[in-house]
Amino acid sequence: MRQSLPFIFRYRDLVEGPTFKASVDSTGRVLATCEPEGWWLYGVIPGAIAASGATFPEAHGKFREAYRLILDGLADDAGTFGVFRQEADRWFKETDPETLSEWLTAVEVVRAFGPEKL
Question: What share of residues in the chain are helix, strand, coil (percent, to 5)?
Answer without folding.
Answer: 45, 35, 20
